[in-house]
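In line with agreed milestones, work has continued on tokenised descriptions of protein folds. One protein thus recorded appears below exactly as we store it:

>
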Amino acid sequence: MDRLRGDKTEGPSKPTLEEKAEQALEMADTAIWLEQTGLRARYPDESDAQIEQRLRDWLSSDA
């Protein structure tokens, strides 16, 4: 209840399944970008193809 207005107000609404899925995809994209950035920093002399292969290896690992 809102003490100033004297009415019931709802709290924040729960995210929809669509919103949750969108958030999950955004987090996955961010994780991939962070890993790719880290790989480029750790292996500055490697080609784009080599970094791409390292990224694919990371994505397919169980770690």
User: Anything to note?
Assistant: The mean pLDDT is 90. The two ends are 47 Å apart (CA to CA). The CA atoms of residues 32 and 59 lie 8 Å apart.
